[in-house]
Fold each of these.
Amino acid sequence: MTAFCEMLERIALDAAAAIIEVYDAGPEVCYKEDQSPVTEADERRQ
């Protein structure tokens, strides 16, 4: 496996772990002033 492929695999696995962590915690939705939802996943991305 090339170094580039290994890097992409690590990124994908890290993203999957973050998604699973948020999913397992259950939904917690906050709302912005315009009443559009902001999820914990969105906040982590910032």
Amino acid sequence: HEQLVLLGDSGVGKSCIVLRFVRGQFDPTSKVTIGASFLSQTIALQDSTTVKFEIWDTAGQERYAALAPLYYRGAAVGVIVYDITSPESFNKAQYWVKELQKHGSPDIVLALVGNKADLHESREVTTQDGIDYAEKNGMFFIETSAKTADNINHLFQIKC
């Protein structure tokens, strides 16, 4: 079992990433998450072992920020998501990275995810900015699109 928590600003696509991974679906009308939602998914790795992910998808809205430690305290993996079209969400992602470095498990694996990569014509956060920040903080970095499914499964293989 790998407990995984997704953190990031409201509207960056955390729930869409999880639904794409767990159910293979994309819902453009996805509603705001209240508190947190829990899903689990078992995946087969190349060496034919399996990993069961227990995924906490947390609410991005400010009023739920105080609840986040309940979900990330025991997590083995922290996935911090931002929207490549939103510099504000990239700043918020950096806040979550600092939170996890301070209060998460000392051996937590962190991944920085630039989501909505299909919206490249509206991009405001460069790929290089994401790479640089991730490298500076010892994190994995990947850009995904929950809409097109690009890199979604790859994201969940990073830890393995």
Amino acid sequence: MGNAAATLAISLDQEAAYSGGSLSGRAYLYVKEEIKCTALQLEVFGAEFSHVHWTTQETHGSGENRKTVTKHHHAYARRHLLRVVVTLASFPNGSLPPGSYEFPFSLVLPSGLPSSMYAAGGGGSCKISYSVKSHARSLTSRRAVGRSRQS
């Protein structure tokens, strides 16, 4: 945060959200000095991650020259489960003056989403996680002027 021209934060109204339920809260934007900004967006993202580890052994040679080599293998996968982008505010003049701003939001999550989880052991791990991020979008580029994230 330090010398940043703007600071973003997110506060959720509930500790947990459920498939088919509502997700509500507020995005807070503190602008220290005027920023070039066209929109404030909220992104709700969910993904499944998995990692599998296994070993194979190869034996070479015979007798005293016989050697067994163990090789470690890894496989990783990622699958997107959810991505919802909501524009909380638009700034048609392309800039935002100094000040403190609060943007309430509420959206309904799709039904059928799996629960967050994490499991590991026996040569692998998997997790399903969700996060809520806010971005202040710049007029001159697609990069975020400020970001905030809550998982």
